[in-house]
Amino acid sequence: MLRKEQNDLLTQTGPGTSMGNLFRCYWIPALLAEELPENDCPPVRVKLFSERLLAFRDTEGRYGLIDEFCAHRGVSLWFGRNENSGIRCPYHGWKYDVTGQCTEVPSEPQESGYCTKIKLKSYPLVKVGDVLWTYMGPPEKQPPHPQWEFALVPAEQTFTSKRLQECNWLQAMEGGIDSSHVSFLHSGSLNTDPLFKGSKGNQYNLKDMKPVFEVVEQPGGLYIGARRNAEDGHYYWRITPWVMPCFTMVPPRGDHPVHGHFWIPIDDENCWAWSFDYHPVRALTDEERQAMIDGKGIHVRYVPGTFRPLANKDNDYLIDREAQRAGITYSGVEGIAMQDASLQESMGPIVDRTKENLVSTDNGIIMARHRLMKAARALAEKGVMPPGVDPVHQQVRSAAVVLPPDQAFKDAAREDLRVRPGIPQTSV
Ligand code: FES
Ligand SMILES: [Fe+2]
Predict the structure, then answer these.
(1) What is the pLDDT, as a whole number, of residue 183?
(2) Residue 211 alpha carbon to ligand 2 centre in Å
(3) Whose CA is nearest to atom 3 of ligand 1?
(4) Least confident window among 179-183, 300-304, 410-414
(5) I want to staple 221 with a disulfide (CB 3.0 to 4.6 A). Which of 3, 92, 191, 243 is the partner?
């Protein structure tokens, strides 16, 4: 349970808020690179942390993320003409480059230098992997570019998607570190989803509905271990790394690609659920890639032309009561991603955490909230850089292992939880 002011602190990310300032310490995914496929292509509206921005790619291939609105009289530059190294407002022709600098005000004499005094807010936008990342904090504090393994492996080994989720970022993220729901909500999918089925670990998952959680601190955040019974008194451990503020990786199953998420606030009542899948040492097969495109695993199918899932709150997520009754899907909603999103959105745009009743399986959530609040406070009061900014903190992996009962996962799996180039994920 949280007090109201704690819930407000964690869920509000607009300009000037504590959590907003915390998020603004990191490089965060802003767009898929494919959204700006070529030079001078149409610009894209981007809303992040309640700021309305515009992304575009200029004639030289430079990426820009600038204020959406023209400095003259506030027209949305989404209508703009992306031409000759800048975006031109279609109302009176003011033009801006990728840094937001105004380069032309056609009505004013060139020699007046008027345009040099006009500059829109802008943020850097860089391509690493399949993602365009932005950093929205103070320029002098800009950290090194992101170092997540999924974004650094060769293109044929990785796939990234994003979907709109119509609720606050925190309740979405909390679903990502709550591995106890898998044995219930996703039980139907473990044996049928092409990106999940067939692993030995699934059997442990489905047999033991009372996992014991052990959460340990790590430099960038937490390792959340969920322990289930295996053979001969051994334990099957699923270990989820959480790196501040909102990165998680799902523990692997067999040789399937490993997947994970970021949950990035759009505003306080919407977020982007970013979902990636990669294999550390081999190319994705055609079947795997096609399954991801088709919305299997942690990906979804979309309302055409949007990133809104096809199953959404306006159609009750296409719930199928027959499938629910027959146990084909546990909740009646199809697909792992929408099973999660439907329930998280059902809590309302911002869940009231003063009313919850947490149990021992919620330990990961409790500790993550504390780390976030502590880091936000340290940043606000002493300017301390939060965990997860340092690229070393980003070099983590999830793991699934079977261990004898007397071994602590944090020691026995220490190496498995680090990125080891050329070595596959540790999986059962
Ligand atoms: S409003 Fe953009 S040029 Fe006038
Ligand atoms: Fe889930």
Answers:
(1) 85
(2) 15
(3) 92
(4) 179-183
(5) 243
Q: How far apart are CA 387 and CA 375, in angstroms?
A: 8
Beta-carbon count within 10 A of 205 CB: 25
Q: How much is the pLDDT for 342?
A: 98
Distance, CA of 89 to CA of 77 (rounded, Å): 6
- Tell me which residue has its CA closest to atom 1 in ligand 1: 73
Tell whether the model's pLDDT for residue 335 goes beyond 90: yes
Which residues contact ligand 1 via a Cβ below 6 A? 70, 72-73, 75, 89, 91-94
- pTM greater than the 0.70 cutoff: yes
Candidates 92, 108, 118: which one to mutate for ligand 1, based on the most atoms within 8 Å of Cβ? 92
In this prediction, residue 234 has a pLDDT band, given cuts at 50, 70 and 90, of very high
Residue 209 pLDDT exceeds 90: no
Name the residue with the closest Cα to ligand 1, atom 4: 92
Percent of the chain with pLDDT over 90: 95
- Ligand 1 centroid vs 72 CA: distance in angstroms? 5
